[in-house]
Amino acid sequence: MAKFEKGNKLGGRKKGSLNRSTEMAKVTLARLANTGLNNITEDLEEIRKKDPAQAAQIYLKLLEFVVPKLKSVEMKVDAEVNHKVEQIKVEIVQKQIEIDATEYKD
Length: 106
Known about the structure:
This protein is mainly α and 106 residues long. It folds into two domains: 19-73, no CATH class; 75-106. It has helices at 20-50, 52-63, 79-105. The N and C termini lie far apart (104 Å).
């Protein structure tokens, strides 16, 4: 009798391969989606004629799949950055004073 050793697989599906029923379900859903996409323009046109507000909502929902939503970003500024900004301001003011002082001497 063969002894099981770690790392040796003795049968079954290969890693990453799909279960047959899962694969069939995905193919069926893909066909259904394809049929729906072929008729979506006409369906939306009918909805727009009956209820323009609902058609607009559907358009907006579909846009979410085309145009990504922007996420707000929170920025934290630590004291070191503020300190460096203050140093730069001081240096600019000092240079401006030096420039002004040389203009009055000449």
